Amino acid sequence: MKQFYGTGTYVQSAGVHSELEIDGFCIAVCGEIGVELSRHRARSFDDMERMGEVLSSFDVIVALSPHSRDLAEQLTRGFHCELEYWPIDDPTPVGNSREQKLEAYRASRDQIVAQIKAHWGVPDGA
Prior knowledge:
Blueprint: H1 2-5, H2 24-31, H3 45-50, E1 60-63, H4 66-75, E2 82-85, H5 98-120
Parallel strand pairs: 1-2
């Protein structure tokens, strides 16, 4: 979102679980389109709350897996925010070779990019 539309819209990334590091394949394929993730750290919804983020202040929450959708539904019950579910293929179990894994991650990345553009329009200059 930030890469395509700038910082005029407040965007945060959260997952079901927090991890210390972002997956290396994810870093590689996002780098191919100019998105720098090597310094990014995954955080959970709980981490966001501890950092002062209030889920009720978000207008839209996008879930990319059934588990994240279910958790977001629980956490935002009673809030006035839109919850969207974009079923993105999980690339982690796909392939045995490095190139097969990269292709799976590229496919998932491209699914996310297509969803972003379909929802918020083609960014200026794209």
